[in-house]
Structure formats: structure tokens, C-alpha cells
Amino acid sequence: MDDAEIMGSINDFNEAKQVIPGGVNSPVRAFLSVGGTPRFIKEAQGAYIIDVDGNPYIDFVQSYGPLILGHSHEFVIKEIEHALKKGLSYGAPTESETKLAKEIVLNSEGVDKVRLVNSGTEATMSAIRLGRAFSGRDDIIKFEGCYHGHSDSLLVKSGSGLATFGETSSKGVIADVAKHTLVARYNDIDSVKACIEASKNVGVVIIEPIAGNMGLVPADVGFLQNLRQLCDKHNIVLIIDEVMSGFRASFKGSYPYYKVVGDLYTFGKVIGGGMPLAAFGGRGDIMDLLSPVGGVYQAGTLSGNPIAVTAGLATLSVLKKDLSVYDRLESLANRFATGFSQLAKKYDVPLVTAVRGSMVGFFFNDTSVKDWDSAAKSDTQFYARFHSKMLDKGVNFAPSQFETSFICTAFDNVIIDSVLEKIEACLQELKSE
Ligand SMILES: *Cc1c(COP(=O)(O)O)cnc(C)c1O
To answer: Which parts of the sequence carry N6-(pyridoxal phosphate)lysine (predicted)?
Structure first.
């Protein structure tokens, strides 16, 4: 697109940068890894987002996962409108919080109790505190390439060489905190054993069962099952982070794919239906260590916010009414992945794809992708050019090679096929440049 067609976004971005660091409230939105101008959005409907200049885009970002029903779903919006008239926040318990908690407990293996919070970051931070309290041990293990929000303990990447103790991945995180986080390799059980050996004080392991934050890299079934056994053997609390995969990979999250049960779970994204809402939960004996029952402090002024809870309940109720919707979403995801693979072959572009339910990932990469090291071999320059051209053609993919794409219920075969046509044109152009 030439500048004239996105003048509104260009102006808005410049103005935003005066008062918001980088012009955005979450770094990936600034387009730093793909270049170009982030589109400022004025509204969104179903499969489409529309920028301030009026350009529509088929949206594979869907707010990075929450909007499984697509943008502005009629029933969800109607429920929120009703709720709005009853007040925005009470700072007191409501019946609908229990309703949402029940919905999560009933449909999640291994979850006896949950507490609602406002973001995935809060959920994982609190679950880790709880896991440390229960195990009585300070060290935790995370996996390179998995993202669990931005609390200090989790902004850690693997150090150089064989060292398993992490280094901070953000300035401002003190080494004394980071040294309690060990970083293992995804899909590599031996690396977990090495961390446990090196520390001798591991109390918690946290993992994305279907990693969606290094692009889409599902865990191998055997790996996750071995991880469960290893945690049992060493009395380690296993936190399964389903913030992205929960109610998204299937209505029961990752469980149907792995049959692995965590001690604690974290949820977010879909359970808030597009509003700021997340949760952590798990075994009753661990959850009852939480204040006010037990001694682990955790709180929130807006936790269980009635509008957010309404959006979450409305979203889950639509999904629950017809669970075959997940099959439909997965077949759309497969149609996209298969079609894209065929085109990549035709134009001699190395491509790796993965699908889990309504999550679909693609890497411009010629090795199989099973961990961060292999994901990182992807051609990010090619992705940047692809991203920019697709945006020009009216398709919004995430502004980074290392994000998952999301299929929502507003998608259909016609939309997928039109996207595949645009991808073909895009690959043709990229190859001839
Ligand atoms: C998005 C995400 C988070 C963080 O959630 P926020 O609401 O952005 O804080 C944590 N874990 C996983 C797996 C996520 O995908």
C-alpha cells in the first residue's frame, strides 16, 4: 500500500509515539520485526478488522487468541450490553464469578478450584508463587521459547554453553531473581533432567503444552507424559499454561491431545472473550494455600470484573452449545495449512506448518521445528516481506514469524480460499523480486 492509503495510521502512530513508548501498549504491535506502519484499528467485525483509513483486513491475529468467535460476536456484545447497565465493578463477589469458575472446573481435567485474575501474566505469576509455597522450593524450570507473560521470574532465557541457569531477557530483572529460573529445551526430557540435577531445588515446572509463542510448536505426546512422570518422581508442581490453548485447541484445552494432568493450570485469552480476564487453578489442596484460606497472598481490585466475566461466560456458552464447532475450526485450519504447503512447494519456498484445533502455525523453514533453536532458524526476512505484502492484499498476520495464527468461527472455506489465492500472488511476487 502506498502511504496515501494508510495516512491515518501513519499520523496516529506518530502522535502515539509522543505519549506512549514506541506508540504501542505491547511491543509486538510496533511492527519492529517486520517493518512498516502498524495499522490503527477503528473497528472490527467477524473475520475482519478495519483500520482508521477504512481498509479491511482478514484477521488471523484475533487479538492474539481471545476471539475464537470472531470480532464483535452478536451474542457476546448483547450480553455485555445487558451487564453494562448493572454497573462496572463492585469489589464484592457475584454469582456470575462462581458460574464462570464452575465452567472452567467442569471442563478442565485436574482443576478443582480456580481464582480469576486480569491477565495471563498475573495468572502465571500467582501460580508460580503458589507452586513454590506448596513445594517449599525456590527454583523453577521454564522452556526456551515458551512465553508465560512478563513477571520477573519468567523473563529469563537460557544462558550460554551448558549452563542451565537462566540469564535475564529484560533489563531491570535482577540476577538474584533470574538465578532461580532454569531454562530447559522444549521437547527434550534430558534437558529437564539436567536442570533438576543442576539445581537440586526445583519446586515448579511451567510449560505451554502446545507452545504458541515461538510460532506453533506442539509438545510431543511422549515428552509431556515423561515430564509428568519426572515431576511426580521429584515432587515438583507441574503448571500447565493453557492461557492460549485453553478452550481453543479444544474445549478441554490440551488434555484430549496428551491425557496429561497438571497440578496447576493457567487460563486467559478465550475465557475472557476479548476482555481482560484470566485465571489460575488446579488441585484443591494446592489452591487452598491461597489467601484468605492459606498463607499465599494474591489479590486484585478488578479481579472477577462483572463485564469481563459476562464476556467470558457468553463466549463459553456459545462454544458449548455446539462443540462440533471445534472440528469445523480445525478443518479450516487444515485447509489453510495444506493449501499453503502446496503453494510453498509450487514456488519452492521452504515451509513448515502445524495445526492444533483452531491454532495454526507456519514457519519459513526447511528443518522440522520442535524447539526454539529449530524455530529460530526460520527466514525472518522472508517473513517480513510476506507479512507486508499480505497486509497490502488485505490479510492481517501477526507482525512476527514467531506467533500463532488463529481461526475463528467467522471464517469459512470461501475466506480461506481467498487468502490462499492472495498467498499465491504474494509468493509469485516475492519469487520474482
Ligand atoms: C498470552 C499468554 C500469556 C500472557 O497473557 P497476558 O494476558 O498477555 O498477560 C501467558 N501464557 C501464555 C501461554 C500466553 O499465550
So the answer is: 269
Residue burial 54-63, b: 16+ Cβ < 10 Å; e: rest: ebebbbbbbe
Q: For residue 368, give every residue at least 6 positions away whose Cβ sits within 8 Å of its Cβ, in sequence order, or none.
A: 352, 374
Instruction: Count the neighbouring beta carbons within 10 Å of the beta carbon of residue 71.
Output: 22
74-321: CATH class: alpha beta
Query: Which of these is catalytic: 51, 139, 241, 371?
Result: 241
147 is catalytic: yes
User: Which amino acid belongs to residue 405?
Assistant: S
Region of residue 231 (phi > 0: left; psi between -120 and 50: alpha; otherwise: beta): alpha
CA 8 from chain centre, in angstroms, equals 29
pTM > 0.70: yes or no: yes
Q: Which helix (H) or strand (E) holds 359?
A: strand 359-363
CATH fold group of domain 3-60+323-432: Aspartate Aminotransferase, domain 1 (3.90.1150)
Q: How many CA atoms lie within 13 A of 242 on its CB side?
A: 35
* Residue 191, pLDDT above cutoff 60: yes
Q: Which of 48, 57, 147, 186 is catalytic?
A: 147
| Domain range annotation of the chain | 3-60+323-432, 74-321
Alpha carbon distance 342, 349 (integer Å): 10
| Residue 401 beta carbon below 6 angstroms from any ligand 1 atom | no
| pLDDT tens track for 90-127 | 999 999 999 999 999 999 999 999 999 999 999 999 99
Residue 189 and residue 234 in contact, taking contact as beta carbons nearer than 8 Å:
no
Q: Which of 25, 213, 400 to mutate to test the pocket of ligand 1 (most atoms within 8 A of CB)?
A: 213
**Phi/psi at 149 (5° precision):** 95, -175
